[in-house]
């Protein structure tokens, strides 16, 4: 098998249309062969079409677009069955956290509810750590201090109240609050 190359194209009634771009096997050929039979938090739908991008498939469904990693051996043509884990008919909405996708009979990816919860907690912790580091080492503190000094006293007192009542305010939320008071000033 040759290595997959970045391909940008669309899937339509005539198949893949890539404007002559090279195609190849999927980048990641690992497949999960079995899923827990007791996982009932899923929604079945069908593909309405797909677009191939360098990072994977963007698949259109009746519930919106879905990004799936480039792990499929076959293209997700219109009408192919898609099962979305992590949502149901009652809970699906734009921005839903999808923790598993099965396209046809191939598992694109899958996490249990517990694995998804752990992954989300780890991602949040990493994002907070990155935000704190940007505040402490990336010059954000200095920019916020300069913005604070340029505010009228009324708005400075507002920021002071937040700073006094929450020791994490400066690195967690001051950027947002500062943007709001700068617009109001």
Q: What does this molecule look like?
A:
It contains five helices and nine strands. The protein is of the alpha+beta class and 185 residues long. A five-stranded antiparallel β-sheet has the order 2-1-4-5-6, with no helix packed on it. A hairpin with a 2-residue loop joins strand 8 and strand 9. Helix 3 runs antiparallel to helix 5. The termini are far apart. The N terminus is likely disordered.
What attributes does this structure have?
23% strand, five-stranded antiparallel sheet, 185 residues, disordered N terminus, 5 helices
Brief digest:
By secondary structure, this protein is of the alpha+beta class. The chain has helices at 113-137, 140-149, 153-165, 169-172, 174-184; strands at residues 9-12, 15-17, 42-46, 49-53, 56-61, 64-69, 81-85, 100-103, 106-110. A five-stranded antiparallel sheet has the order 2-1-4-5-6, with no helix packed on it. The chain has a four-stranded antiparallel sheet with strand order 3-7-8-9, with no helix packed on it.
Strand order of the largest sheet: 2-1-4-5-6
Task: Calculate the terminal CA-CA distance, rounded to whole Å.
Answer: 62 Å
* Uncertain segments: 1-32
Cα radius of gyration in angstroms: 23 Å
| Count of individual helical segments | 5
User: Which percent band covers the strand fraction?
Assistant: 15-25%
Proportion of helical residues: 25-40%
Q: Based on CA inertia axes, which overall geometry fits?
A: elongated
Please give the number of β-strands. Answer: 9
Q: Could you give a short account of the major beta sheet?
A: 5 strands, antiparallel
